Amino acid sequence: MGSAGSGSFGTYRINGSSDSEGNNREGSTGVGSGNMGFGTGEVECPKSIENIRLEDIATSEYYVQHQSLPSYGEAVSLRSKIHNGRLVVENLSAKEVLGNLPT
């Protein structure tokens, strides 16, 4: 499953998805305002997520710089802007990318 979108947080599709050229796949509504998703095929992104396995950690800014992972409990957040075409998690203290959210 790939991702496509506007390059910022907001909504995501739940009834199918678009292909790499933005065309709706079979079964996808592809319409709606994204407010609460009722009948639109979209829902708002949650404000908080937990227990996500990050991708590309070994090539992340943080790991390349420190050759280790952050300490357990270190504060992290989702970067509000797309980084190299992906949604990423960063540590709050230095704003270094820790890994990519799965697509």
Task: Kindly describe this structure.
With 103 residues, this protein is mainly beta. It has 1 helix and 5 strands. The chain has one helix at residues 61-66, and strands at residues 11-13, 42-44, 76-78, 88-91, 97-100. It has a 3-stranded antiparallel sheet with strand order 3-4-5. It has a two-stranded antiparallel sheet with strand order 1-2. 12% of the residues are buried.
How would you summarize this macromolecular structure in one to three sentences?
With 103 residues, the chain is mostly beta strands. It has one helix at 61-66; strands at residues 11-13, 42-44, 76-78, 88-91, 97-100. Helices cover 6% and strands 17% of the residues.
Query: Structural class, from helix and strand content?
Result: mainly beta
- How large is the count of helical segments? 1
In the sheet with the most strands, the strands line up as 3-4-5
The total count of strands amounts to 5
Helix content: under 10%
Give the SSE order as H and E letters.
Answer: EEHEEE
The oligomeric status of these chains comes to single chain
How much of the sequence is in beta strands?
15-25%
Shape, per Cα inertia axes:
globular
Rounded to the nearest angstrom, the distance between the terminal CA atoms is 6 Å
Please tell me the total number of domains. Answer: 2
Could you name the ranges where pLDDT drops below 50 across 5 or more consecutive residues? Answer: 16-37
Please summarize the sheet with the most strands.
3 strands, antiparallel
Arithmetic mean pLDDT: 73
**What is the CA-atom radius of gyration, in angstroms?**
16 Å
